[in-house]
Specification:
heterotetramer, A: Sufe protein. Chain: A, three-stranded antiparallel beta sheet, globular, B: 398 residues, 2 domains, 12 strands, binds pyridoxal-5'-phosphate
């Protein structure tokens, strides 16, 4: 069901953990739906110098968190903002269709963490692109 | 990985076909391949083989051979029982009663019947997963034609008060169907004693082959055909008979009912040891289903703060086959309707694990499963934001 | 009797499962027994095995794998195809067209649909057993939603003008289902080329196991589910998959389509030799069905003055397995509706014999069958009052 | 499907053939239904001294003819009249339910042959018992 890449990131998650003095934190998902992701960022001079995640969820949710954090580490905030759910899924060598929402969650988690940082810095939050898929924001657990 | 240990604890999903059963089936493929509907020797032998299997099934549940009809499995039996009787009795009434924790083979068939104009009452269950017979009594109307309540639940193992249900139905003159797919081979069943009118069973749940099952239809019960065509199964179920499958079913049911009590007791003892250890040594764990009125091999527990699919993946990595009621496991998008029906919050339902022990499991399997399970739960909790929050809250309170 | 010769010439009833096929199935019983719906390794392997089989079936008929759905056999496929599309399209119309010589799996399903308010046209056939496409065209109305005509007939072997039927249906935008249970493995089939929308097949007719079949459903065809329950077969056909059976079906269809033309030609030559001898050396014998547009292995002849069941008994005594359209053969009370539909008088239909040759038959089998058949026919004529009358009449005329 | 006795009488039919100068002949059945039985009797001093049959039909029809002729050979006409289809079926160690009409045909064949004899002798024919099963006399082939 899962690609080898997904299983690798699930079995050996990168960047799992917490940054206690994070510069930005984003949490998405809903325990009712079976997945919550929390992304912690350390930012220095607009660069993501460290990133960690905590995830409650399925294999795809864990792997998406792990892969997403890998993809944004060392990037500028602008670059990190552009990392799409598709990029996460592709880097994982694909996700089963019913699991695509996990990669969406990861993208949203990053966006939330970046905006949390921006708000803390007194900057206006960036806006989500229109037509963007939402994880569970519509209140249902299906995507 | 090469000689990694592997432990199968998903016997409610399916079982390995007993090698003895496979041996019994083999001749009916390549040598004794006659079509039972034909007239010549090769065909008569197939016919006899089917009738022998029919007798074995009948014996196993206290029925007459002519009350047993072979099908392609539990799901077809359930569809036939419900749709066949509902349409046959439509003139009498259009009300059906079932429980809220049936297998999808019953649940979705009831939903289909609702679309066809039948009205269906889904009885609630208590926190152990049992229906209340008082609820059943008050649900019965003049238009009730059928009650279908499963014998034992496939997820949480809870055994229903079948005898009382049968008695109520008999008194009211209402047909009683039970989906005994999980019960056969685990609980002794006598359809006479229990006043069961229709009973579904599926061979692959008791060490028989997949793709074959049976429906018991008490003599005199009015039921429409469901699969139309040739005159097989005394003109009630068309289609060339799956002779090897039927022989396998017969062999399996005979064997599994022969030492039923001994086997069940052995499995129950083993199950209880593993269950007690899980509940006592892994914190934030709850048992789902009834503590004692449950299938001998069934464990269903919920681990707080974690999600079931990822738990299964870790167990699978350790060679352990198990199951979960989480939405995230393949197939369905919603968490188990059974776990929700017994009152679990969705979040707890997502953290559920089902281990179903069978004939070949050992104490050694228990040890291995417990050790791997404990590690896996700890590992997932270590990455869970919910668990992190819980720890913080607790340290603040201390 | 001990080492009596035995010859199987009833391949249209069923075939021996190819030993290679049985070998391919075996692992999926006792070792690779995982339920394909589960998540762990054992289950994923079963899932992969099913998907491999699906690809093989798709390749065999020129379909896409996702257009193949496994069932419990030809009968279920036929029921699902007809009832599933009829109810799904009910709003569009309620008229169905079929032929008067369909297998009971189609015929009785059509009768069921008539009871449900559908109107069914049964196209007549000519004396060779073919429908006339002009009849089909004029039967089509605005309310026609489905045409179901079998690919090749199980009794007389006649092959229908499927390509023309497909073309007509496509032009009119009407679904075309064909029961190809007898055709698969005997005639090359490409569902694209022939404009087939739904196609039924059954494994045990082409050296696969009994109790498993498939329905091809062209992408985009609207069809209701028939067996309700779990999410198997992409939520279209519920029930735990018969993994060994499906693997067997896949293995069998791959093998049988690989050398289809060579095998068919060999069998056709053998068939023609036996058929010619019967027609030329046993007087008062007629061929039923089309002389050339027929299944390669099919012989269907009528012997005047005698009854088919007693002929089968004598052949059986000689170790020969064959079939008849006589009412007196087990199962049915009426003589074959197919033989009546091609214009045979009931009395001639009662004297029919079907011999269907298969892969393992030889010239030696032909010799033996011919000799025993001739003896048996003579013996029954010798006790027949009809033959006595005929002889008397003839001697009077001389 | 058939008992050994049926198969024995089918494979080795007793009294098969024709009596060219028969004292009584009875024919029953219908080719449309797939069975015709013809019974020939030789009668001396009210005793059936010889009996033969010709049958077009299934195994059960042939066996029933054979057994029925055995049962009446050497009997008085009154005794032969009393041989019921049940007696034929029992002597054959049973017939499948859908084949019971074959034994009925045999009984009727004997009755017809006896009455043919009686009529030829200028005697009134005996009457069939009321409530008696008829083979195909109702025009359908099913019993
Ligand atoms: C309680 C219950 N009913 C019905 C079924 C359906 O049986 P099958 O999958 O063999 O058709 C199952 C198992 O899947 C079951 O556990
Ligand atoms: C033409 C045709 N259709 C349908 C069937 C039914 O197939 P099955 O008996 O495998 O269900 C058969 C064979 O019996 C057949 O010959």
């Amino acid at each position: 069901m899962y690609s080898e890449k997904v299983m690798d990131h699930f079995m050996n998650p990168r960047n799992q953990g917490e940054i206690t003095d994070a510069d930005g934190v984003g949490e998405v998902g809903n325990p009712t739906c079976g997945d919550i992701m929390r992304i912690f960022l350390s930012v220095k001079e607009n660069i993501i110098t460290d990133v960690k995640f905590q995830t409650f969820g399925c294999g795809a949710a864990v792997a998406s968190s792990s892969m997403a954090t890998e993809l944004i580490k060392g990037k500028t905030l602008e670059e990190a903002w552009e990392v799409s759910n598709k990029a996460v899924a592709e880097a994982l060598e694909g996700l089963p269709p019913i699991k695509m929402h996990c990669s969406v969650l990861a993208e949203e988690g990053i966006h939330k963490a970046i905006n949390d940082y921006r708000i803390k810095q007194g900057l206006p939050p960036w806006e989500e692109k229109a037509g963007h898929h939402h994880g569970h924001d519509d209140g249902t657990c299906e995507t | 990985m090469a000689n990694q240990k592997s432990v199968y604890m998903d016997h409610s999903a399916t079982t390995a076909t007993d090698p003895e059963v496979v041996q019994a089936m083999i001749p009916w493929f390549s040598n004794q391949y006659g079509n039972p509907s034909s007239l010549y020797k090769l065909a008569r032998e197939s016919k006899t083989a089917i009738e022998n299997a029919r007798s074995k099934v009948a014996t196993a549940i206290g029925a007459k051979p002519e009350e047993i009809f072979f099908t392609s499995g539990g799901t077809e039996s359930d569809n036939w029982a419900l749709i066949g009787t509902a349409f046959a009795l439509r003139k009498k009434g259009n009300h059906i009663i079932t429980s809220g924790i049936e297998h999808h083979a019953i649940q979705h068939t009831c939903e289909y019947l609702e679309k066809q104009g039948f009205s269906v009452t889904y009885l609630p269950v208590d926190e152990s997963g049992k229906i209340r017979t008082a609820d059943l009594k008050s649900a019965i109307t003049d238009g009730t034609i059928l009650v279908s309540v499963m014998f034992a639940n496939n997820e949480i193992g809870t055994i229903q008060p079948v005898k009382e249900i049968g008695k109520i139905c008999r008194e009211k003159g209402i047909l009683f169907h039970t989906d005994a797919v999980q019960a056969i081979g685990n609980i002794p069943i006598d359809v006479g004693d229990l006043n069961i009118d229709l009973l579904s069973l599926s061979s692959h749940k008791f060490y028989g082959p997949k793709g074959t099952g049976a429906l018991f239809i008490r003599k005199g019960v009015r039921i429409d055909n469901y699969i139309h065509g040739g005159g097989q199964e005394r003109r009630k179920r068309a289609g060339t008979e799956n002779v090897p499958g039927i022989v396998g079913l017969g062999t399996a049911i005979e064997k599994v009912t022969r030492n039923l009590e001994d086997n069940s007791n052995r499995i129950r003892v083993l199950r209880d040891r593993l269950l007690d250890r899980i509940l006592s040594e892994i914190p934030h764990t709850r048992l789902n289903g009834h503590r004692t009125d449950r299938l001998a091999g069934n464990i269903n527990v919920s681990f707080e703060f974690i999600e079931g699919e990822s738990l299964l993946l870790l167990l699978d990595h350790a060679g352990i086959a198990a199951s979960t009621g989480s939405a995230c496991s393949s197939g369905s998008l919603e968490p188990s309707h059974v776990l929700l029906a017994i009152g679990l919050r969705a979040e707890i339902a997502h953290g559920s694990l089902r281990l179903t022990l069978g004939r070949e499991n050992t104490e050694e399997d228990n040890e291995y499963v417990f050790a791997e399970l404990k590690k896996a739960v700890e590992r997932l909790r270590a990455m869970s934001p919910l668990y992190a929050d819980y720890l913080k809250k607790r340290s603040r309170h201390v």
